[in-house]
TrEMBL record:
This is D-xylose reductase [NAD(P)H]. Pathway: Carbohydrate metabolism; D-xylose degradation. GO terms for molecular function: oxidoreductase activity. Its EC number is 1.1.1.307. It is an enzyme of class 1 (oxidoreductase). GO terms for biological process: D-xylose metabolic process. Substrate binds at residue 112. Transmembrane segments: none annotated. It catalyses: xylitol + NADP(+) = D-xylose + NADPH + H(+); xylitol + NAD(+) = D-xylose + NADH + H(+). The keyword NAD applies. The gene is GAR1. It holds the Pfam family Aldo_ket_red. The lineage of its organism: Eukaryota, Fungi, Dikarya, Ascomycota, Pezizomycotina. InterPro entries: AKR, Aldo/ket_reductase_CS, NAD(P)_OxRdtase_dom_sf, NADP_OxRdtase_dom. The record marks 81 as: Lowers pKa of active site Tyr.
Amino acid sequence: MAVADVKFKLNTGAEIPAVGLGTWQSAPGEVEKAVSHAIAVGYRHIDTAFCYQNEHEVGQGIKEALASGKVKREDLFVTTKLWCSYHTRVEEALDASLKNLGLDYIDLYLMHWPVAFNPNGNHPLFPKLPDGSRDIDHSHSHVTTWKNMEKLLGTGKVKAIGVSNYSKLYLEQLLPHATVVPAVNQIENHPALPQQEIVDFCKEKGIHITAYSPLGSTGSPLFTAEPIVEVAKKRGVGSATVLLSWHIARGSSVLPKSVTPSRIEENRNLIKLDESDMATIAKYTDDLAAKKAFQRFVYPPFGINFGFPDKS
Ligand SMILES: NC(=O)C1=CN([C@@H]2O[C@H](COP(=O)(O)OP(=O)(O)OC[C@H]3O[C@@H](n4cnc5c(N)ncnc54)[C@H](OP(=O)(O)O)[C@@H]3O)[C@@H](O)[C@H]2O)C=CC1
Ligand SMILES: O=C[C@H](O)[C@@H](O)[C@@H](O)[C@H](O)C(=O)O
């Protein structure tokens, strides 16, 4: 089996395809084509979110792919996410996402960030206080949000629920109260931010890791990082292949974003990294750790300590 066709088992018994197309910041007019192209060339996993404001177009791309007759809805794994301003309106948010996507169920519904915004603030997605800071409802716990997400499983509108941007600290707050253990924790993950503590903790608890910003996000410096280039040269592939294949070797799924057809194709060109490749990347990671030089590319200004060791 090609490495890109690997699937990982979730704690629900369902399988998540190892490579999913990311769609954050995929512009209108581009993302529909990106999604339909991705599915046409073999992707079976698409990641979006209510706050990306592109669910409708993502849904159009899925519809186009389904109309080709080559794939069926049940062949696809679609993830979307509950946005922070909807933590007190979980089912309403899910219904809005389903309507946007034109689907009657979601394979995986994630709590996007463990923080609730004021639902009655000055903006439906990004409410702010007069001082410009995010308008956060500090009285609302992410644990309450999770308990409400658990109720969604009975509606048939979601196959699995999970979390995103959860540190070990936040999972330790959540798990004692959870009836349903999250199926997935979607976190920023790449060799310059290995998040080993969370990866190990999730493994122990049966929570699958999905890696976001695996290429280092927009304008990434990772493509030219020397050890990545070294492994890429040795294996006769591009840096993207090395960066993405690293997750499969760790047992994680991965979400490369692209709206460029050739890159969408390249990002499925995964290989099985061998011990010496992994050792070269581990040395890079260890050197960054020793220098306290991990790189986190996505840390929006929530003004909250999420408990990530590189940020506290
Ligand atoms: N849960 C969460 O909070 C978050 C989730 N995510 C999810 O993860 C996905 C991926 O993360 P994201 O931050 O978008 O960044 P990625 O790490 O996927 O990097 C995307 C960037 O890399 C470029 N690129 C893609 N493939 C290649 C390639 N083969 N060679 C060179 N450049 C390439 C893209 O350009 P172009 O498109 O122009 O080709 C884009 O600029 C998101 O789209 C989203 O779905 C991301 C961040 C946070
Ligand atoms: O999924 C991608 C990211 O988490 C993105 O949704 C956030 O960074 C958001 O733009 C924000 O500013 O809080």
